[in-house]
Design brief:
This protein is about 75% helix and about 0% strand. It has about 200 residues and is an all-alpha fold. It starts with a helix and ends in a 9-residue tail after the last helix. The protein has ten helices and no strands. The chain has two domains: about 90 residues, RNA polymerase sigma factor, region 2, helix turn helix motif (Rna Polymerase Sigma Factor, Chain: A); about 90 residues, Arc Repressor Mutant, subunit A.
């Protein structure tokens, strides 16, 4: 069991093609991450998010043969999750919106965008977390998702490029635009950070 848990994703994919039992370890590795990603981008209830993740894993398993070994498996599974969120939105009109962030998420996001955060005190943190949530909710979906992927899911530009199927240059441009847009909205919400307007 320990061997499976420590194996690289790509090796587990190869083993899963021969033995269904190995797929469990891929699911275990990504279940919490993908569930968190779904919750960060939608207003899905826990039950709805679990339904989405079930569909994601069904699609991953069905398409394992088509997995391109040149890609990172993590980018591939996030791409499938991204597509499934959009599918659910079209089918059920699931609202694409940011759910409340915890304090650590809020600090990571602002700190990463700006690198000059100055937040003190728990009350102030909670107040800022709500303001950050509102600021993110006002962003266009494409900007909100790219900020979530970059700063909350900690994906590289190349990984985001693979997930969203956009050239890395486009990803870099969109991240810069998303950051600029976020800073403007954050200013309107009087976000108490070092963000420069």
């Amino acid at each position: 069991m320990n061997d499976y848990e420590n194996m690289p994703d790509e090796q587990l994919v190869q083993l899963s093609l021969k033995d269904q039992g190995c797929f469990y370890y891929l699911m275990k590795r990504y279940e919490i991450k993908i569930l968190r990603y779904i919750k960060r981008l939608t207003t899905a209830s826990q039950e709805e998010a679990e339904d989405i993740i079930q569909e994601v894993f069904i699609k991953v398993y069905r398409n394992l043969n088509g997995f391109n070994q040149k890609l990172k498996f993590s980018s591939w599974i996030y791409r499938i999750a991204h597509n499934e969120i959009i599918n659910q939105y079209r089918k059920t009109k699931l609202r694409l919106a940011i759910t409340p962030l915890n304090i650590e998420d809020e600090e990571n996001l602002i700190d990463s965008i700006n690198n000059t955060i100055e937040i003190n005190g728990t009350y102030e943190n909670l107040e800022n977390a709500e303001k950050v949530r509102k600021a993110l909710a006002e962003l266009p979906d494409k900007y909100r998702e790219i900020l979530v992927l970059r700063y909350l899911e900690d994906k590289t530009y190349n990984e985001i490029s693979d997930i969203l199927r956009k050239p890395p240059g486009t990803v870099a441009t969109q991240i810069n635009r998303a950051k600029a847009s976020f800073k403007k909205i954050a200013g309107r919400h009087q976000l108490n950070t070092g963000i420069v307007k």
